[in-house]
Amino acid sequence: MSESAHRFALIAEDSANAHTSSTLVDRAIGEDCSVEWLRQLWEEPSRTTTRAWTPIDGDTGERFEHGSYSKLTNLPKLVPRVHALRVAGGGKAVEIAKAIAAIEWTSTCDHAAAAVIAYDADDDPKDELRICQEFESRRARFEEAHPGCVLLLALARPEAEAWYIAALALGQVDGEELAALRRELGFDPLQHPERLRSTSDDSPRDAKRVCRRLVAGRARGEVGECVASIPLGEWTTRGAGCGVEALERAVIDRLIPALQGRTRSR
Question: What is the pLDDT, as a whole number, of residue 203?
Fold first, then answer.
């Protein structure tokens, strides 16, 4: 990473969360920003030297399409004292608390323009509510203490594969499988990916299973290209119920203004 690059630290559940969330953040900056000089910095090939996706400090990270990220399940090894964190109600909100603490306790927030936590909501509405409440409560304190680092949550409902499905075009899917899935599910998964589930592979509504069926035989990179090629407005509209629109809105409302000030000060 060059000294002039904006560092985006990323903690993700897996590579699918890392890829979809980072793609959306980059695209929202490059396409939604009203300031031309900042928007141009996020155009290729400038983007690769303008920003860098990295793991938290002290972690070599997991490689993915846009850089490296810290895996959520590795945080207790990297920052042992996160084991002691407790959150009322427990559940997946604990993992959010651990991620934010790890960003602070490794001093990553002192060097990053943004820190993104990419996580699957799965299928528990009460747990999802606790995740969002825990994040917002800690985000306010975090950004007050570290005003130079914007904290973002990329919460995929029910999981990251639904973000891929929301970005697939008819020409990118197996038509026979799509027709069969419409009959089996009782709805079109391309138009309503939020109605899928995060269960087991043998469940007809499991998002991972549905995604595999729709793109049967295609390579991971080819499937991943869909989130880069679909018109951004269409992706956020179709993926609104999956959390895509919420992350785009956070980038527009909080990250882009911060980047404008940060870049001008350099």
Answer: 86
| 135 CB-contact burial (10 Å; exposed 0-12 / middle 13-18 / buried 19+) | buried
Hey, where are the domains in the chain? Answer: 1-157+243-266, 161-240
Among 77-91, 178-192, 213-227, the range scoring the smallest mean pLDDT is 213-227
Residues 6+ apart with CB under 8 A from 35: 256, 260
Who's near 173: CB < 8 A, 6+ residues apart?
Answer: 190, 214, 215
Q: Residue 124's pLDDT band (boundaries 50, 70, 90)?
A: confident
Report, as an integer, the average pLDDT of 111-130. 92
- 238: number of Cβ within 10 Å: 22
User: What pLDDT was estimated at residue 3?
Assistant: 47
Could you please state the CATH topology (level 3) that the domain comprising 1-157+243-266 is classified under.
Rossmann fold (3.40.50)
**One-letter amino acid for residue 111 of the chain:** H
What distances in angstroms separate CA 139 from CA 63, 233, 246, one per listed residue?
A: 26, 27, 15
The answer on pLDDT for 151 being more than 70 is yes
User: Of how many residues is the chain composed?
Assistant: 266
Residue 72 parent element (H or E): none
Of 253, 249, 39, 21, residue with least CA distance to 154: 21
Helix locations, the chain, DSSP H? 15-32, 36-41, 47-50, 75-78, 93-105, 125-145, 160-167, 175-185, 207-214, 220-224, 226-229, 232-238, 244-250, 256-264
DSSP secondary structure string for all residues of 101-130? HHHHHTTGGGT-SEEEEEEE-TT-HHHHHH
Query: In the predicted model, is pLDDT for residue 21 greater than 70?
Result: yes
At residue 218, what are phi and psi to the nearest 5 degrees? -85, 145
